[in-house]
Amino acid sequence: MTMRDTVPALGHIRRMRENPALNAAFAALGADDEYTRAFRVAEQAEQRLRALTPAPNYSDAVADILDAGQLPADFGEWLREHNTAQGRYDAERQALTNLRTDAAARCWAILTANPGRLLTNLHQQLTALIDQASASAAVLGDITDAEDIVRAGHDAVQAFGALDQAHGKYIEIRSAQQKVMRECVDDILVRNCRSDQCNDKAATDAYFANLDELYPGWRRRPGQPDRQYLGAGPDPRDGVPWPQDGPMQLAWFINHGAEFWVPTPAQLEELHKQRRERNYAIERERTAPDYVRDRMRKERETGEQAKRPRPGPEQLRRANVQRRMSTPGLVG
């Protein structure tokens, strides 16, 4: 189930296209002409509906007759004209309403037919933005305070200005992403991107592919043993490690190796599958007897070693030279 099972109002569809990042993603689909024609018809139908003049109210006419105490001689003719005008008004109103609905439905179908392609384009926009902002983030380094930026000098101030602009564009892209996910992606999948243990809006799988590394234990539940907190990094009990929302938060994520992304539903499902498998393996190892745990640890270490790239000839030569230099009696 998605968040919306019916075609929304025309105003909602209009607002979807007002986000520049989403508008650019939609334009990349190559369906602008079809959408523009349908949207133009929908707006024209809405304008005609607002301009329609209803027939005179029958109850008002009857009240005037009763007040006058006299039935007009042409009442029959007036009644026929009234019914004709009312019928014409009702028919035109119904036709325009149906036309507006059909045109809006076509617009909505175009908007929601390809969520994967829209999200992929937003990801491309995000990647280009982060590439541009990386140099400014590197200048600021670990600075998180405005006063420290001023004391750091002209380059830091300029870098902050550039990051401030980049952050505005970043928010625009994330807003577009949220619109697409809210309208086109399964509710459960969207909810699973967050954790009830962390309310920070940046803590979501939808924003970072490696959030488990940036904030280990962000999904940790109360009452679990401390040994379930694995790996280096800030303890989740101490709060989120990044600054509050703003340019410095963007710099923090860039400088700490965040894997920015705008994932498709399939990519999110794969990420969640990998997390479940990893958590299952951790739980199995944690609850296993000591001898089984030792064996599983050795198997895991062996597997990690097997994944490491084998040294090339030049690396082997340098290692042999280093070994000879560090071993007495082998140099000569």
Characterization of the model:
By secondary structure, this protein is mostly helical. The chain has helices at 10-16, 20-27, 32-51, 58-68, 75-112, 115-140, 146-152, 154-184, 187-191, 211-214, 247-255, 265-287, 290-307, 313-326. The chain is built from 14 helices and no strands. Residues 225-237 have low confidence and may be disordered.
Task: Give the strand tally.
Answer: 0
Task: Kindly report how far apart the N and C termini lie.
Answer: 75 Å
- How would you state the average pLDDT, rounded? 83
Spans of at least 5 consecutive residues with low confidence: 225-237
Helical segment count: 14
Estimated helix fraction: 55-70%
Helix-strand pattern: HHHHHHHHHHHHHH
Structural class: mainly alpha
Q: How does the overall form come out from the CA principal axes?
A: elongated
Biggest sheet descriptor = none
User: Rg, please?
Assistant: 32 Å
β content, as a range? under 5%
Short description:
This protein has 332 residues and is mostly helical.
Provide tags for this entry.
332 residues; mainly alpha; 14 helices; 67% helix; elongated
Topology:
Layout: H1 10-16, H2 20-27, H3 32-51, H4 58-68, H5 75-112, H6 115-140, H7 146-152, H8 154-184, H9 187-191, H10 211-214, H11 247-255, H12 265-287, H13 290-307, H14 313-326
Helix pairs in contact: 2-6, 3-5, 6-8, 6-11, 8-11, 12-13
